[in-house]
């Protein structure tokens, strides 16, 4: 029994460090659930805007949406790779509240901060080359603005928190 328990613990620990990459395609079926059993981290490559819309709306007619929802049940850490253009349409609520990470061009994580006035300390917590989505009513302190430049952080300023398909 101890041997079985040791193997189960080993499998769980191994799963926590395992990454799996999938390429999204409307013409391909979503991957099997086995991906979630073997991996705790899943990268979805080439994520298009229409899929993000379906995911945000929880469109159960889309097999990929159902697959991601099932992944949440397995406590999967999703990372969606998007283009710079697509990143401009990701709903702020999705960036802030959903248990996933968006990454622009495979290297620039996307964040949206909630503070009205964003301090240097808050910017310091972000990785270099991040993308930060702000609303027009949010402001950076002068020290934060300096740090944004030195960390090569891209700011996206939006008029409101709603995305185009919510209007």
UniProtKB/TrEMBL annotation:
Q: Which Pfam families match?
A: PDU_like (PF15953)
Q: Which GO terms describe its molecular function?
A: structural molecule activity
InterPro entries from the entry? PduM (IPR030992)
Any idea what this protein is called?
A: Propanediol utilization protein
């Amino acid at each position: 029994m101890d041997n079985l328990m040791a193997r189960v613990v080993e499998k769980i620990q191994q799963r926590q460090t395992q990454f799996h990459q999938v390429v999204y395609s409307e013409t391909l079926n979503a991957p099997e659930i086995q991906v979630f059993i073997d991996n705790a981290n899943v990268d979805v490559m080439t994520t298009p805007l229409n899929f993000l819309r379906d995911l945000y709306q929880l469109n159960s007619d889309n097999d990929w949406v159902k697959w991601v929802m099932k992944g949440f049940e397995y406590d999967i850490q999703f990372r969606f790779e998007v283009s710079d253009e697509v990143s401009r349409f990701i709903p702020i609520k999705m960036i802030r509240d959903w248990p996933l990470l968006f990454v622009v061009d495979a290297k620039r994580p996307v964040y949206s901060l909630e503070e009205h006035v964003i301090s240097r300390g808050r910017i310091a917590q972000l990785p270099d080359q991040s993308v930060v989505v702000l609303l027009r009513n949010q402001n950076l302190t002068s020290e934060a603005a300096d740090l944004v430049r030195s960390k090569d952080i891209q700011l996206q300023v939006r008029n409101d928190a709603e995305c185009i398909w919510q209007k």
